[in-house]
Description:
The chain is an alpha/beta fold. The chain has helices at 2-10, 28-33, 52-66, 81-93, 109-116, 126-129, 132-140, 156-163, 184-195, 214-219, 244-257, 266-278, 303-310, and strands at residues 22-25, 36-41, 71-76, 96-102, 120-124, 146-148, 175-180, 201-206, 229-230, 287-292. It folds into two domains: 20-48 and 155-310, Rossmann fold; 52-153, Rossmann fold, CATH 3.40.50. The protein is built from 13 helices and ten strands. Helix 4 (81-93) links the parallel strand 3 and strand 4 (96-102). It starts with a helix and ends with a helix.
Amino acid sequence: MAQAIAQLLKMKEIELEIFSPIHEIRHPLLNEKGIDLYLKRDDLIHPIISGNKWRKLKYTLLKARDEKQDHLVTFGGAYSNHLLATAAAAAQFGFKATGIVRGEEVTNDHLFLCSLYGMNLLFVDRESYRDKPSLFTRYFSNDANAFFIDEGGSSPEGAQGCSELMDELMHNYNHIFCACGTGTTAAGIINGINNNYLETEFHAIPVFKNGSFIANEIDKYLLKPSVYQLHTDYHFGGYAKTTPQLIGFIQQFVATTGILIDPVYTGKMLYAIFDLAGKNYFKRGSKILAIHTGGTWGLLGMKDKFLPFADK
């Protein structure tokens, strides 16, 4: 019975159509500054494979299937949304999956769900983790079915999937904002802007400290040289770092909009937009589109940051 179900899953086509709605965000500051802010709700694409994770995996999975490799091998930290999304996608579309996890062996909600989806987890020390191709060779050189997926889904295929986000837009925007981790999503959006001949200014919000390096990561996936804005002052201490100011902003945003946002990516991006608006960065009448890249499962790994608010 189990074999029959597995075979049926392997025959299932990978879904090609992805679409997410756009919701307007209302706030007194936006009214005061004469700005219209809209949120592209990629977090609603899928309950687990949400946001840019699904977009980055789409053509990657198609490539694996075309090359007849049904064992997905990828990388991430213990709270990686990419690991969780890959585990769920593998289960849904009939792949085997292995996640190589950075650091000592731990248990948490993310890894529990990864295991529940059937992903095998390998924990490696942080020094070895730096060289992912070597890790892939060490463990899977004898597995002809193993398919390498870089951390965060970073790849030309990932950028291709993210570029299609711009195909879905029905209106014009003066500014488009997105948080940046690997730069793949940003590069894809810029390519999509160019492909659709959109007259809009793109803004990248790196989530790492000293995030100017992300420009090199974005540029390597661009189909042609492009001008964009990089705002490096909204990292709040670095990747997965927070401050009471950021946590307070997220708590208020969620409570007043009903939209969950995470402190690692989307929370920092939206904070940046509101901060820039308060500093009169945007002209009156500007229309801004912010991309919600999912990642709300990341809240599970940062619950302690919100406890002072939860106790009140």
